[in-house]
Fold this protein.
Amino acid sequence: MSTSGPQWLLDAARAGVFHLTADPHQFAAEAAALGLRVYRVEIGHAHGKHDFLARVSRAMHFPDWFGGNWDAFADCLKDLSWTGADGPARGWVVILEKSKHYCDGHRRDFEEAVGALADAAAFWRGEGRPLWTLISGPDGWKSGWPPMPAA
């Protein structure tokens, strides 16, 4: 396993929900090189809660027991044992790509989803493993979440 890339991504105490200002492709590659599992989810054209949850479920390969609702979403994020088919991850990165359109059209659902991701990050922080959620959108767009922490 390579250990090149920004080592601070392995620090669970720093993980959480942030606005990604870097290139998502490059960031994903650097995170993967550190042994983090990276899930890129294009949500820009999601049409509401169920479509959003279906996109995340497909991208992250949620288990069959996923119920397609916010409670099941939160449960999947706090039990990531199903992600370890090829060995345990050092942590996880979820990149919500093209977020502006979904956020603008479905703000309440977006906030519900990001809240569940923030709660899961806090849970995994307590376990000593980082779960990063990165909100990506067009240059200049402000998601309302803090930018990625500096190294």
Summary: Residues 107-126 form the longest helix (20 residues). Residues 7-135 form a domain with the Barnase; Chain D fold (CATH 3.30.370.10).
